[in-house]
Amino acid sequence: MKVLVDDRWFGATGIGRYAKEILQRKPQGNNIEYLSKSWAIKNPLTPLLLGREINRRVPDLFWSPGFMPPMRCMSPFIVTVHDLIHLRYGSKLQVIYYNEIIKPLLKQAAYVFTVSEFSRGEIIDWSGLPPEKVISIYNAASRSYSNTGDRFKPGYPYLLYVGNMRRHKNLDRLLKAFSEADIPRNLRLVLTGDEDKALSGLAVDLKIENRLVYLGHVDESILPSIYRGAVAVALVSLYEGFGIPAVESMACGTPVISSNAGALPEITQDAAYLVDPENIDEISAGIEKIVTDEALRKSLIHSGNIRSQEFSWDDSAGKVWEVFSGIS
Q1: Which domain CATH number covers 127?
Q2: CA atoms of 255 and 246, how far apart (whole Å)
Q3: 64 shares a domain with 167
Q4: What is the secondary structure of 188-256 as a DSSP string?
Q5: Which one, 67, 118, 235, 253, has the greatest CB density within 10 A?
Q6: Angle at 64 between CA 113 and CA 29, to 5 degrees
Q7: 37 occurs within a structural domain
Q8: What's the predicted TM-score (pTM) here?
């Protein structure tokens, strides 16, 4: 089977990691070819360009690890739509593009993959696709995420956030809640990624600028040690289609304070301390609880270890390739 893959999604992102884990578990007898084009992901002509390239190369199957389907495509194709974040937090043009371009093209897909039952329900409701054409296959944590290994020791205890700094990540409320929490003053809030000027300005207003730390780009090889070194991980997003950092944190033996919105309750179940992401007081109380209540911490670490073992890239990739093989 010849599978043509849209490799524009590769890189140090959640979608990039997802694609890597699936493709490196390719069963024997399958050949992978890559699109190898430099079109921007958000190029509005991408569906038309994809269709032309696919028709020129005639694969047995085309797979997009991200949300972009091809137009006028002669080969079967599968698209992974991780969530509908652009409909909730995108611009007016993005919403129009999703409704007028993406939705009709998805109806032509052999299947649409997604990464949680929460996202599956949203996609079915929005797209009108038959439920049997929308398949939920969970993400997972790579094998390097475990509770054994080095621990990051910066010289101070820290609450950790891993991810980008987009609006739906709710970092402004996280900072406000952190500033109000009755916790030791030497506890810092550590964020992966480069400095965000708006957040830094807010930290100054909240008088916690000396307690906010940006790690810059973090290579995935050292990320497990950063999880292990944290007092807890905070993921209080307004919306997540899955939430890989929650699973990675649980696998590393670090308790999680999680939003009760989106897919996060489904993914964490009873293995995280859930809070209302729009309630700053509730987030603050959750931070206090997860930092100071040792019995709670031990319980969450134990249940997190059990829950994290229910997510496996081997299982997920096996399900993906089983669907692929049924296309040929």
Answers
A1: 3.40.50.2000
A2: 9
A3: no
A4: EEEESBS--HHHHHHHHHTT-GGGEEE-BS--TTTHHHHHHH-SEEEE--S--SS-HHHHHHHHTT--E
A5: 235
A6: 90
A7: yes
A8: 0.94
